[in-house]
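Handout, section 3.2

Students often ask what a structure token actually looks like in practice. Rather than define it abstractly, here is a full record for Histidine kinase. The first block is the sequence as you would receive it.
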Amino acid sequence: MQVKSIMTRDPVVVPPTMTVEAVAQLLAQRHISAAFVVDAAGLPIGVVSEGDLIRRLAPSAEETGLGWLARQLIDRDRAATQYVRTHGRQVRDIMSADVAAVEEGASVREATEMMQKRKVRRLAVVRGGRIVGVVSRADLLKAIIAEPDRLAGPGPDQRIQQAIIGEMQRHPWGTPHLTGVVVENGIVRLEGYCRSEQARQALRVVAERVEGVRGVEDKLEISPLHDYALYPQI
């Protein structure tokens, strides 16, 4: 699934010269939490959010009063930048200049990875450098619901079993040498041992993710003190 299939088209964009009061009213009227800032050519140069606006309500350290020693040690350039962000009258004064963007043809997985890496709540979707949409965390959740992650295609019980065992072998918490996987008519029965309660839950999720699985029966026993060294990994 591509980003362009889940993005919100024609997102709200604002010029850097818009006043802070005007952008605050715009966000409230449109019931959105942020807007991208574009230059005269329509290229994204920043994003202004509710957080940028709310930050203006919190007094800075300088405004709450600094002692003589603190004034000598303070980073003056940083303090000046902070003053602009909390007292500036235009969007360009308060916006975040770092825009996280993704091409419209990118996959949903790529967008998710970028959002996590950049630690942002939304991505600008671009075509030729210009914003054509926006994708948010909520959009990604809808994509997950519409197209759940699957490990294997439909198949008989043996293919389901192989998919589960193969996934266990890929992870350090997996114990394919101690955990039995029995599949009958799409019902998976996990039996034997696992390392911990966390591993038990992970094994359940592994089984549930495989397409064709109709149910999972957990018969596992937790044996954290088991000498796993006696059982080499398969």
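Discussion prompt for tutorial groups: The CA atoms of residues 151 and 210 lie 5 Å apart. How would you have guessed this from the sequence alone?
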